[in-house]
């Protein structure tokens, strides 16, 4: 089933110059890039994106990290792209992520709170629709 997903190369990935390598891996997997935008997220945008986490202990550090520099926002399309990208990304903990995944090959473990893990990918078609609407309202 062809679907779309939101992928974010988070500020740590952009700062480390990994956006091109991550885009290469997305395209090498056979997914189509539909939209790309490099921008620094606002606290307001992130409140919508992470609405289920507002008030949790890690929310403020997450917003602080995500507003610390630009992120590369991507809409990708393809067969089972949501599941496929999440597999390509690897587990959220870069230390535990398998080799061959974005986080396994390129990620670093900076602290016990896994915030700086290079990428975000929507976790369901419903999340993808909602997140794409937040980051790319014109789509």
Structure report:
With about 140 residues, this protein is α+β, with helices and mostly antiparallel strands. It is built from seven helices and four strands. It has a four-stranded antiparallel sheet, with helices on both faces. The longest helix is centred in the last third of the chain and has 11 residues, at about 125-135. It is globular, with a radius of gyration of 14 Å. The model has no long low-confidence stretch (mean pLDDT about 95).
Largest sheet: 4 strands, antiparallel
Q: Which structural class do the helices and strands define?
A: alpha+beta
Radius of gyration: 14 Å
Q: How would you describe the oligomerization state of the chains in this entry? A: single chain
Strand order of the largest sheet: 2-3-1-4
Low-confidence stretches: none
Strand content: 15-25%
Continuous helix count: 7
In summary, what is this structure?
The chain is of the alpha+beta class. The chain has 7 helices and 4 strands, in the order E-H-H-E-H-H-E-H-H-E-H.
List strands and helices in order, with pairings.
Elements: E1 2-9, H1 11-15, H2 19-28, E2 32-39, H3 43-49, H4 59-66, E3 71-79, H5 81-89, H6 102-106, E4 119-121, H7 125-135
Keywords:
globular, 7 helices, about 40% helix, 4-stranded antiparallel sheet, alpha+beta, about 140 residues, single chain
């Amino acid at each position: 089933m062809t679907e779309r997903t939101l992928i974010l190369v988070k500020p740590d990935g952009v700062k480390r110059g990994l956006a091109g390598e991550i885009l290469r891996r997305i395209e090498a997997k056979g997914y189509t890039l539909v939209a790309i935008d490099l921008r620094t997220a606002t606290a307001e945008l992130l409140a919508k994106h992470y609405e289920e986490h507002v008030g949790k202990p890690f929310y403020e550090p997450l917003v602080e990290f995500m507003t610390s520099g630009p992120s590369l926002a991507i809409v990708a399309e393809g067969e089972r792209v949501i599941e496929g990208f999440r597999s390509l990304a690897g587990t959220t903990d870069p230390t535990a992520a398998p080799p061959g995944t974005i986080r396994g090959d390129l990620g670093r473990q900076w602290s016990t709170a896994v915030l700086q893990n290079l990428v975000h990918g929507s976790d369901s078609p419903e999340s993808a629709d909602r997140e794409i609407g937040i980051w790319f309202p014109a789509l």
